[in-house]
Amino acid sequence: MVRLPDRAGTRSTRPPGDRSVPEAPGPARGVPARTGGRGPAGARTGAPAESRTDGTSRKDVSGGRGGLRATLRGRSVAGQVFVLQVVIVLLLVVSAVVALVLQVRHDSTQEARNRSLAVAQTFAHAPGIAEALQSPDPTAVLQPRAEAARRAAHVDFIVAMSTDGIRYTHPKPDRIGKKFVGTLAPAQAGGIVVEEVDGTIGRLVQAVVPVRSADGRIVGLVSAGVTTANVGGVADRQLPVVLGAAAAALALATAGTALVSRRLLRQTHGLGPGEMTRMYEHHDAVLHSVREGVIILGDGGELLLANDEAHRLLGLPQDAERRHVDDLGLEADIAGLLSSGRLATDEVHLVGDRLLAVNQRPTDLDGGPPGSVATLRDSTELRALSGRAELTRERLSLLYDAGVGIGTTLEVARTAEELAEVSVPRFADFTTVDLYDPVLIGEDPESASALRRVASAGVRADAPLYPVGRQIRFVAASPQGRSLRTGRPVLEPRLQDAPGWLAQDPERGREVVGHGIHSLITVPVRTGAQVLGVVSFWRSQGTEPFDAEELVLAEELVARAAVSIDNARRYTREHSMAVTLQRSLLPRSLPEQSALDIAFRYLPAQAGVGGDWFDVLPLSGARVALVVGDVVGHGLHAAATMGRLRTAVHNFSALDLPPDELLGLLDELVARIDQDETADGVSAPITGATCLYAVYDPVSRRCAVARAGHPPPAVVAPDGGVSFPEVPAGPPLGLGGLPFEAADLALEEGSRLVLYTDGLVEDRERDIDAGLAQLQASLETSGGSPEETCRAVLDALLPSRPVDDVALLVARTRALGADRTAEWDVPADPAAVGEVRAWVTRRLSQWGLDDLAFTTELVLSELVTNAIRYGSEPIRVRMLRDRTLICEVFDSSDTSPHLRYAASTDEGGRGLFLVAQLCDRWGTRYTPTGKVIWAEQSLP
Question: Where is the composition biased (Low complexity) (predicted)?
């Protein structure tokens, strides 16, 4: 341990606070002197241990009146602690006394107010007081009673007075007959007064209450009061007790403080100069044992003190103390810093093979001696550790960012792009991602198939690597081929020495190496036992080649990305399956019909497949049914449910039912499906299924509409006006219990009927009322054709990626004119069949359909004969010339004919069989007044 010379000697007799340096032989100025040396056994030499610089012995310090007097004088820490504790206790006692006195006085005053009021009220309500106040001599009756009550109640006065305030009673008889001092108006009005006033007997608290007669009149007043002197007397009587208790507490606290201070004095030995010197020696020993260099320099750059660690770090000679730093053979920069004495914080200097962190501070900032103190810390090993820690932190940060930034979407290509973007330039200069072609469409990878470059990122755009979209087949000897074959990563620190890499594409390989790309890591994209592709990390000139530790990092990075790529692949497969299912369930083309010009749009939701659907169904009599439905939810279940409902509507529409009856049957079907699936426990029941069903008749130009929990239709008139007809809103399908109602709309030719699902007009940020208003505005400015209407509506109402499915159906109405229809009323007479045949022949001749005359006469003859024989009047025949020739026979009967095979012996039963053979279609539909049997024939 390095020590300054001449440390032993006599202790200084100057007080601890004296900063002057005595002019005496010994150590140099600014060098602290040691109070004693160490003997062979380690015992200290020098001044006797029992002596003190202030002339007192250790015995005097530890006990006796001398130690107590030193404590009371406050010359030691123990004395200062004693005085501080006594002052604190005294302040607490004084505060407690003041608070107690104030509280007692407050409580006494409050008690006086309560007592005066209670006494006044009691005396005023006492029996006979009201009669005495109305007697000829109230004083003679009330004065004795008032004085007796005053003494019993311990108040200073009870005064009975007239309503004008003239006293009838008073403790001092000479005050009787005089005006009462105080506020009387509230009491004269029937109230109560409690106040503090300066009365005739001094400062007092008094209460004034009215005295009422039996009939409720105020016949006088009564006042009772207590003087402030008596109120304060309570506090004065309690004050000696309080002060005595405070004095006892102060005495006990002082005694306890004295004991504590005496013990502190004995344990610290008074903290005199001798003890401070001994403490300094202990600090000196600690100074030389710490693992940090400490140097103290004088004002002129002279080295005053250097501990052992400073000697080791700087290589100082043994006689370095008292020499100038420039003479110690130090490096120029460290010597200049130490001799300058300037402020320095964690400055790093090279000393030999060490990097030293130097902190330097002047010592005279707070009035200390001139000079400076510097600390030295060896940061060589710390720098190496910090470098590795920083590298580890950067790699962890890269993995964290990869976990957050890769897999933000469920798209395979985008996930691969995110992997490339995260790794460049933090890990590699160029990154390429190659995946098997089946992976991109959601299928399982096939090792025999080619790979496709899905993503590429780099610090430059001119690298001669395969471009994105290029189909690649890696040879088995290439790093990528080995990774795909073995499922393990491959490190090629020097590409120019990798023959397998050059075997892949010699010309391109030489271009890549010539471009400066010199190091490669290939990592297979693995999920379980499957290899989806390979990721290649490239480094170019200016960066170190990849090493084994970075190979592990690359494998971890790709492993995290592989999970997201596989999730995107699986989602792509499921999404493709659901889309395929949904596309197969939706109508691919619209059926041919002449009643409506139709345009439609279907937009899947951002989440993928949903349950919205629409349909156009030709019906008998040139009528057309329009259907729009919605199943809440997304995915395969919603698509499958939509297909079931669409199929059910197809089947029910074949029955030619009115819209409300069809929705009723559909509601029962959904309820049965819910019951079956709930009992099965596997599939979820249908919830939130809605439907709108409309039937348009081009002959009457009327449209029957019914809806089950679905938004209402919109109608655009030929002049451009938009309206939302009142269509009764039934409950959603499957709830049951309520019938559905249909609305009958009259539509002019050229009107546009707009049907849609709720995804068009409603979302999380827009309620349905605002959506309907936007729909109306877009329809008012849309073009006249259904296609223009669809385009205008979607442009105005839909974002680029809707959150819900949207189905839109726009139908412009046509009319079947009178020149294409013919009707006849037929009497219920078999002879009328001949007339019908004549009418039909003439009308077909007018339409240019003479080729159909024979078949049509035969069909109508059979249908009319059945109506006459089995139906009831009125009977009517109608022919429509549309895409087909339609023959209809109306009657008021609800009996339906059935097709059957007639036996060879039967005389009848072959009519409907002939109709079925001669016509393309035939059937029966019911009306509110009967039924219609119809048949269709193709036009020549």
Answer: 22-50
For residue 625, which of 600, 658, 583 has the smallest C-alpha distance?
658
Q: 581, 670, 576, 674: which is closest to 630 by C-alpha?
A: 670
* Token duo for residue 368: 């200390």
Give residue for tokens 């013919």: 822
Place of tokens 């990154």: 431
Taking alpha carbons only, the member of 695, 699, 705 closest to residue 656 is: 695
For residue 47, pLDDT beyond 50: no
Is 303 exposed, middle or buried (CB count within 10 Å of its CB: 0-12, 13-18, 19+)?
Answer: buried
Render pLDDT for 332-378 as a digit per residue (tens, 0 to 9): 888 888 888 888 887 888 787 777 888 888 887 766 778 888 888 87
For the chain, give the longest Cα–Cα distance. Answer: 161
Query: How wide is the angle at C-alpha 853 spanned by C-alphas 848 and 854, nearest 5°?
Result: 155
Q: How far apart are CA 698 and CA 771, in angstroms?
A: 31
Structure tokens at 760: 């068009």
The secondary structure of residue 767, as a DSSP letter, is -
User: Do 14 and 24 meet the contact criterion of CB atoms below 8 Å apart?
Assistant: no
Count of beta carbons in the 10 Å neighbourhood of residue 702: 14
Query: How far, in Å, CA of 476 to CA of 481, rounded?
Result: 4
Q: Which pLDDT tens digit goes with each residue over 224-243?
A: 888 766 655 555 666 677 67
Three-state secondary structure readout of 260-309: HHHHHHHHHHHHCHHHHHHHHHHHHHHHCCCCCEEEEECCCCEEEEECHH
Comparison of pLDDT for 584 and 452, the residue scoring more: 452
Residue 506: C-alpha distances to residues 475, 510, 512, 517 (Å): 12, 6, 10, 15
Say if strands 202-212 and 218-227 run parallel, antiparallel, or are unpaired. Answer: antiparallel
Please list, in sequence order, all residues whose beta carbon lies within 8 angstroms of the beta carbon of residue 8, skipping any fewer than 6 positions away.
34, 35, 36, 37, 45, 46
Which tokens belong to 818?
A: 């009178």
* Nearest CA among 196, 199, 168, 14 for reference residue 109: 196
Report which residue type is found at 453. Answer: R
Residue 555, pLDDT > 60, answer: yes
Contact (Cβ atoms closer than 8 angstroms) between residue 714 and residue 775: yes
Q: What is the DSSP string of 684-731?
A: PPP-SEEEEEEEEETTTTEEEEEEES-PPPEEE-TTS-EE-----EEP
Helices (H) and strands (E) in the chain, counts: 24, 31
Q: Which residues pair with 813 in a beta bridge?
A: 596
Between 64-73 and 77-124, two packed helices, what is the crossing angle to 10 degrees?
70
Strands (E), 495-623: 519-527, 530-539, 596-603, 610-618
702-708 and 729-730 beta bridge pairing:
parallel
CA dihedral 3, 6, 10, 12 (to 10 degrees): -70
Q: What would the mean pLDDT of 891-909 be, rounded to a whole number?
A: 64
Contact 574, 442 (CB under 8 A): yes
Q: What percent of the chain has pLDDT over 90?
A: 26
Decide if 161 contacts 170 (C-beta within 8 A).
Answer: no
Q: Which amino acid is at 124?
A: A
Q: Which two tokens stand for residue 505?
A: 């594409």
CA distance 59 to 73: 18
Positive/negative CA dihedral, 37, 39, 43, 45: negative
3-state secondary structure of 801: coil
Pairing of the two strands 875-881 and 624-634: unpaired
* Alpha-carbon span 767 to 786, nearest angstrom: 26
Q: What gap in Å lies between CA 478 and CA 440, rounded to an integer? A: 23
**Six token digits for residue 813:** 């109405």
State the pTM of this model.
0.52
Over 80: is that where the pLDDT of 92 sits? no
